[in-house]
Specification:
alpha+beta; six-stranded antiparallel sheet; 19 helices; 12 strands; 12% strand; binds adenosine-5'-triphosphate; binds magnesium ion; ATP binding; manganese ion binding; magnesium; AMPylase activity; transferase
Length: 580
């Protein structure tokens, strides 16, 4: 058990990142905080800027346990100091200087440089994220990165800070996603400043405007996230763009180094180290395709919408990264999109298409390494072309699992999708109620935002008569579903393998969570936290890290609920701009 920073320090291992190139223009002391262009090198040494008067808010008990950390360490003085941004006293061999990385941006497959203040792409990257440690713990390599740790050369003139609100959201969401069984960066710890605040645009109470309507002052925070690496698709793109246009003599070599580094960090267990670069590149593309398609199918399984699935928010290791504009779907809507800037292209059921665009960007970034290997180029092209097919197969497997079926049935699914959208249903509650394998549709109605028999509805547009015959269609759908799932006499007559209700329910409850992180649970938690009361965060954390469990009656009453009518269309609750 590791219970002090002194015990953690010897596990530090920077050997892999030391193989990368540091920005030759950087100041090695890490005192490099002003916005500027970075022309080459994989990282810039940067020391984090500590937040003033840090106060412990939360840590992930789950991750601490996995890493063999004692819970008490989270509140020990040296740990608090280091993970609130002050590395000046960290014990050797931990380093007193962290690092930030540059990356490029493609939005839905289109390359951009306009977001870079210099219009060159050389000023874009980790503007407020600073990695502080790489450690090998129990045979696994982890990078620890502070978010909100002050300005870096990539800050583009901004303050380098993250507010408590956005930090709480990311902290809770990462561990919820992990508990849902979806690959993700993880949350280590969260500290808030008792004195330092910044101003951000936000929504006034009950505002229905799409964009924030005033400025508020919010406490700053530093959260630490943990992953095998933080390499993004956009990062590979930055180096590939430079290699393509021969921006400097080492550009191609830097691209190759980064790609091989990615293989070591994220794909070491599946790609043989003895292979040459071209072979590794082909295997990397195949493996990333498999992870990315599985990831997106998992997102849809649990109702998650990334909201802003740009290539710089797409981790090259194939896990979820950047919990800013995200949300969990409540009222089922294929176009659900919590971020006001995200548009249709990054909406809920369009995520497979958005992933394909990121995958195309990924393959384009690998291509310069294969110019002398015609056969490998052809293989890469085939891997890219087959993305949609692999994605579709993952989706069908996922829908079948969500419905407790051995095989996907298009007709059954299409009718369900129509009914879910027309009724409409709460995505989480619907699938969980279905997992109880009800006799008739009454229990499912618990998930309906519109009462089929009268005009009660959560929103004015849901009032009025239900679409003609919808109740009958639901009943018919349920009968057909049960028959395909092997329940009841119709199934027997059809020759489907019979199953017990209990067996089916048990299986379905492992893929259909009971609890999902609805924004109206998170809002009071961060509001209370900004007043110094962290108990609501802990409660939400406790419930949301066991999302498949039934939990207590009290928890069920409070958290297994449809979105209340008063929260619809409210800025900061139903949608948000990305300001964080
Ligand atoms: N307050 C800030 N100061 C400096 N840079 C910022 C700030 N807020 C965002 N950025 C940078 O702007 C870019 C786009 O912001 P986005 O909201 O995607 O990032 P984020 O949530 O900070 O980042 P990440 O993708 O690292 O989770 C990122 O490169 C980010 O580092
Ligand atoms: Mg981002």
């Amino acid at each position: 058990m590791i219970s002090t920073l002194e015990e953690l320090a010897p596990l530090a291992d920077y050997s892999l990142m030391d193989g990368l190139n540091s920005d030759p223009d950087a100041n090695a002391s890490g005192d490099d905080h002003a916005p500027r262009q970075v022309f080459s090198g994989h990282y810039v040494p940067v020391s984090p800027t500590p937040i003033e008067a840090p106060d412990y808010v939360a840590h992930s008990h789950t991750l601490f346990r996995e890493l063999g950390f004692a819970d008490s360490m989270a509140q020990s003085a040296n740990f608090v100091r280091a993970f609130s941004g002050d590395l000046s006293l960290v014990p050797e061999p931990m380093r007193k200087v962290g690092w930030a990385c540059g990356y490029a941006l493609s939005i839905y497959g289109t390359e951009y440089t306009q977001q870079c203040p210099f219009q060159t792409g050389n000023g874009y990257g980790d503007g407020r994220a600073v990695s502080v440690l790489e450690a090998v713990i129990d045979g696994r390599r982890w990078e620890m990165q502070l978010k909100g740790a002050g300005r870096t050369p990539y800050c583009r003139g901004a303050d380098g800070r993250a507010v408590l609100r956005s930090s709480v959201r990311e902290f809770l969401a990462q561990e919820h996603m992990h508990a849902l069984g979806v690959p993700t960066s993880r949350s280590l710890s969260l500290f808030v400043s008792k004195t330092e605040r910044v101003r951000r645009p936000w929504y006034s109470e009950g505002s229905r405007s799409m964009e924030p309507d005033h400025m508020i002052s919010e406490p700053v925070a530093i959260s630490t996230r943990v992953a095998p690496s933080f390499i993004r698709v956009g990062q590979l793109e930055l180096f590939a763009r430079r290699a393509r246009r021969k921006a400097h003599p080492q550009a191609m070599e830097e691209l190759e180094k980064l790609v091989l580094h990615l293989v070591d960090r994220e794909y070491g267990d599946v790609i043989d180290t003895e292979l040459d670069t071209a072979q590794k590149v082909v295997l990397l593309a195949r493996e990333f395709r498999s992870r990315l398609t599985a990831l997106v199918a998992n997102w849809i399984r649990v109702g998650y919408c990334q909201g802003n699935f740009n290539s710089d928010n797409c981790a090259a290791g194939g896990f979820t990264l950047d919990y800013g504009p995200f949300g969990f779907c409540e009222v089922f809507n294929p176009h659900y999109q919590p971020w006001t800037g995200g548009g249709h292209h990054f909406s809920f059921l369009n995520q497979p298409a958005a992933a394909e665009r990121n995958f195309q960007s990924f393959c384009s970034a690998l291509r310069p390494l294969l110019t002398a290997h015609h056969d490998c180029l052809l293989q890469l092209e085939e891997i890219q072309n087959d993305f949609a097919e692999v994605m579709q197969a993952q989706m069908e497997t996922m829908w079948a699992a969500k419905l407790g079926l051995d095989a996907f049935n298009a007709e059954l699914f299409n009718e369900l999708e129509t009914l879910m959208a027309h009724t409409p249903v709460d995505y989480t509650v619907f699938f969980r109620e279905l997992s109880n394998v009800p006799d008739d549709i009454r229990p499912l109605q618990k998930s309906f935002y519109k009462n089929l028999n009268n005009a009660d509805a959560a929103k004015p547009w849901m009032q009025g008569a239900a679409p003609e015959g919808i109740e009958k269609r639901w009943s018919e759908w349920l009968t057909k579903w049960k028959s395909l799932a092997g329940i009841g006499s119709t199934a027997a007559a059809n020759g489907t393998n019979l199953r017990s209700r209990e067996e089916l329910a048990k299986k379905m409850k492992l893929v259909n969570p009971k609890y999902s992180l609805r924004e109206w649970f998170v809002v009071p938690a961060y509001q209370q936290a900004s007043e110094g009361n962290y108990a609501p965060i802990r409660e939400v954390q406790q419930v949301m890290t066991r999302p498949y469990a039934e939990q207590s009656k009290e928890t069920e009453e409070k958290y297994y609920r449809l979105k209340p009518a008063e929260f619809f269309d409210v800025g900061g609750l139903s949608f948000y701009s990305c300001s964080s």
